[in-house]
Amino acid sequence: MIYYFTGTGNSYYAAKVLGINLQQSIENLGDSQRAGITKKVPALKKDEPLGFVFPVYAWGPPTWVLNFIESLDVENNPPGYTFAIATCGENIGNTMNTLRKALKQKNIGLDYGYSLKMPNNYMMMGSKVEAGQKAEEKIRRADLLLSKISEDIKSREKGFTLNKGFMPKILSKAVNPLFLKYAIDTKKFRVNRNCISCGLCRRICNTGTIELVAGKPVWGKECVQCLACINYCPVQAIDYGRGTRNKGRYKNPRISPMELEIRGKE
Ligand SMILES: Cc1cc2nc3c(=O)[nH]c(=O)nc-3n(C[C@H](O)[C@H](O)[C@H](O)COP(=O)(O)O)c2cc1C
To answer: What is the pLDDT of residues 72-128, one digit of tens each?
Structure first.
């Protein structure tokens, strides 16, 4: 079983490829949280690995990934092998340590981990999204690595291949908490007059926090800043403060937005 979380399709794409290569089911780990399920018992078949694929946010795993792990109950059916793939634009700091600690709390070991570079989807704080040729090259490289990762997992390889970046401890221990505390403020989302009221932002919102009021999106409080709403808006009507204007947008070119629409939302 492979659980994934994704904003703009990179991690979903990686999970999908791994699911096909390993003949494993994939499931959006947000599904149970949106449904308010606090205890998740994965139905693992004999010898079935347990996998996680998710994007890195400010050198840590998204909070929904950690919350999901907290809800896991594998007491009666512990996985024999667990792996995690963290997709990132550049580097992941100590993300894997954070994940490993969360899994340890549930008596789950982490056998294998990989940081998989994919196009950057973040366009705040001086960062620019990667699109076009640069994005395509990164995805092509990721394809090759996904084949290798699949083979590693098939042979139950153990070990970690991680691009942690410079001073990973500081990135994950100091910057990540600041990001969680100060960077996510849904009051900063803006919608301009280009909005065509298509409602896609609402349908792809991971946390289900977007409602349409008079045809326009309004954000509630629950947000992990996956940036699906900004990146997928077909007319670039959404911004976050002033910092995202004219910064370009990214969506994984191999994934259709329809694949990311959250079940249960029309
Ligand atoms: C809020 C936020 C923070 C991010 N922080 C990092 C980071 O610390 N390091 C990095 O290399 N990429 C970072 N990125 C880029 C994403 O991790 C990367 O583009 C990822 O593949 C997106 O996956 P997705 O398409 O499944 O959402 C960040 C993206 C967002 C939206």
So the answer is: 999 999 999 999 999 999 999 999 999 999 999 999 999 999 999 999 999 998 899
Distance 120 CA to ligand 1 centre (A): 6
Structure tokens at 31: 């599904």
pTM of the entire predicted model: 0.97
Residue 266 maps to a domain: no
Q: Do 114 and 163 reside in the same domain of the chain?
A: yes
Residue 149 DSSP symbol: H
Question: For residue 92, which atom of ligand 1 is closest to its CA?
Answer: 9
| Structure confidence by residue, pLDDT tens digits, 134-164 | 999 999 999 999 999 999 999 999 999 999 9
From the CA of 26, how far away is ligand 1's center (Å)? 20
* Claim to verify: residue 117 and residue 169 sit in the same structural domain: yes
* Ligand 1 atom closest to the CA of 56, numbered from 1: 17
> Which atom of ligand 1 is found nearest the CA of 183?
1
Q: Which of 88, 143, 224, 252 to mutate for ligand 1's pocket (most ligand atoms within 8 Å of CB)?
A: 88
Going from the C-alpha of 198 to that of each of 20, 105, 206, 240, the distances in angstroms are 32, 42, 17, 19
In angstroms, the first-to-last Cα distance of the chain is: 27
